[in-house]
């Protein structure tokens, strides 16, 4: 290992040795100090992230910075992570939490503020030290976020190096770091996630997103469509949990197109030339066109040669034009088939959403499954329905870790004030997505647990016979 990376590891281990002596109250104060640092500087950090990366929307990142900081802090405030955290008298087992040590965290260009913030909060909750390696296109934004977090931690007496960020970003430094830490969190592209799994250390990674959104026949489109469009448009579509496809009852097509247009989502006509132009703009031989990641609907339309048009004659008329209205937030397009039949079935990290009509709910689930098998298996699905049988059917048959019901998936799959999922920015996809966890990453994945087992007075399986 180079002297440079060894320095980070040595400083982290010294800081973690101090933090290991924290009480629960001290750990919680450190967590809250990090959250407040990002919350109080949310707008400046959002602007810096967009300016440096050229991706996303300042207003959306501002909201994300504030909401995630408050949400994660609130969730962690009720959790035990120091000393005895559980007793099961029935089986005589007591659980005692211990730190994992030094955490190495890889940060994606699409989320350079809240991902290091969340990972730092989870790490500190477990009394660990964390070293962050930023994406090379977001070094300034992530570094500024860490500087603010460190300033907040200084105010509560935390060790100086309990959080660090690599100053000289390179592939070699990242590989050395993840090979030297005790646990690795890899949030980003699959190449980096696979590198983390090859590091020889326990790794917590994420899979590709490709959220399938199924609308039931009982759904109210005036409620469902605004949530879907908001999710697809949020931060210009770079959220991994953002809605990617709408699978809808065939007889609702006209109503759906009008509802989309009313929410500034322009639907391309079934014109093979226009659809092909959009597809060719979105994808290259290597996958998603990186120049369109996190760009606006207008930028996507320009790249596809779809001239902007003024929405002068109402929603239905606008959707009969070859171009898109100038105020479009999302471009909707009918795919030529599910799964491998059309690349539009995959993840599109910009505000474009694919459309699939269905006749039966079984067919809707089959379309969603085909698309997930093509890309995004293990991530999330969004359902807009009140039919409990359909919800259970989708939950049983779809290979995903999260199923969001009557919610905006983009802003709720990573935890919400209104659902019980753990607030996070790192969404595990299970073995489906080549991940070690099939849930939202949180503090419990960054603690070791010693289980003290006492001898029971009786054979607890005396009732069982083979």
Give the beta-strand count. Answer: 19
Low-confidence stretches: 310-321
Text of the CATH class of the largest domain: Alpha Beta
Shape type: globular
Helix content: 40-55%
| Overall pLDDT confidence | 94
Give me the Rg, rounded.
23 Å
The profile of the biggest β sheet is: 7 strands, parallel
* Major sheet: arrangement of strands: 10-15-16-9-8-17-18
Tell me the CATH architecture of the largest domain: 3-Layer(aba) Sandwich
Distance between the termini: 55 Å
DSSP strand content? 15-25%
Write a brief caption for the model:
By secondary structure, this protein is an alpha/beta fold. The chain has helices at residues 3-19, 24-40, 42-53, 58-77, 114-125, 139-154, 171-180, 190-197, 221-233, 253-262, 272-282, 297-304, 314-318, 361-374, 388-397, 409-412, and strands at residues 83-88, 93-99, 102-106, 129-133, 163-165, 183-186, 203-205, 211-215, 243-249, 265-267, 283-284, 287-288, 308-309, 324-325, 330-334, 352-358, 378-384, 400-405, 447-453. It has two domains: 3-206 and 441-453, Aldehyde Dehydrogenase, Chain A, domain 1 (3-Layer(aba) Sandwich), CATH 3.40.605; 211-417, 3-Layer(aba) Sandwich (Aldehyde Dehydrogenase, Chain A, domain 2).
């Amino acid at each position: 290992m180079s002297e440079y990376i060894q320095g980070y590891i040595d400083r982290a281990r010294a800081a973690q040795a101090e933090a290991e002596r924290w009480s629960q109250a001290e750990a919680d104060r450190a967590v809250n100090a990090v959250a407040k640092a990002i919350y109080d500087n949310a707008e400046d950090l959002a602007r810096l992230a967009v300016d440096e990366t050229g991706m996303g929307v300042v207003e959306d990142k501002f909201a994300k910075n504030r909401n995630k900081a408050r949400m994660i802090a609130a969730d962690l405030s009720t959790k035990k992570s120091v000393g005895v955290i559980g007793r099961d008298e029935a089986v005589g087992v007591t659980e005692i939490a211990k730190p994992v040590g030094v955490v190495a965290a890889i940060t994606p260009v699409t989320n350079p503020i809240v991902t290091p913030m969340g990972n730092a909060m989870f790490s500190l909750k477990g009394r660990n030290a964390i070293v962050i390696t930023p994406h090379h296109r977001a070094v300034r934004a992530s570094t500024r976020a860490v500087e603010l977090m460190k300033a907040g931690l200084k105010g509560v007496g935390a060790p100086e190096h309990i959080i660090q960020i690599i100053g000289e970003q390179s592939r070699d430094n990242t590989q050395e770091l993840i090979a030297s830490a005790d646990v690795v969190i890899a949030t980003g592209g699959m190449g980096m996630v696979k590198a983390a799994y090859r590091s020889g250390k326990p790794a917590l990674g994420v899979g590709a997103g490709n959220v399938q959104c199924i609308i039931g026949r009982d759904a109210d489109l005036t409620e469902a469509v605004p949530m879907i469009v908001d999710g697809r448009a949020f931060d210009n579509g770079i959220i991994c949990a953002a809605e990617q496809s709408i699978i809808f009852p065939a007889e609702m097509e006209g109503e759906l197109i009008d509802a989309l247009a009313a929410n500034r989502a322009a639907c391309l006509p079934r014109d093979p030339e226009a659809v092909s132009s959009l597809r060719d703009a979105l994808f290259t031989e290597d996958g998603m066109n990186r120049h369109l990641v996190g760009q606006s609907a207008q930028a996507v339309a320009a790249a596809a040669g779809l001239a902007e048009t003024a929405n002068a004659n109402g929603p239905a008329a606008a959707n009969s034009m070859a171009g898109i209205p100038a105020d479009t937030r999302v471009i909707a397009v009918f795919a030529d088939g599910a799964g491998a039949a059309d690349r539009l079935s995959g993840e599109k990290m910009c505000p474009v959403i694919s459309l699939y009509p269905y006749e039966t709910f079984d067919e809707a689930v089959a379309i969603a499954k085909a698309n997930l098998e093509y890309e995004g298996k293990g991530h999330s699905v969004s359902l807009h329905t009140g039919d409990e049988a359909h919800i259970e059917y989708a939950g049983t048959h779809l290979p995903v870790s999260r199923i969001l019901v009557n919610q905006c998936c983009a802003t709720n799959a990573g935890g919400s004030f209104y659902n019980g999922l753990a607030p996070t920015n790192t969404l595990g996809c299970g073995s489906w997505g080549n991940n070690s966890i099939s849930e939202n990453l949180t503090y419990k994945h960054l603690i070791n647990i010693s289980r003290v087992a006492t001898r029971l007075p009786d054979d607890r399986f005396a009732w069982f016979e083979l």
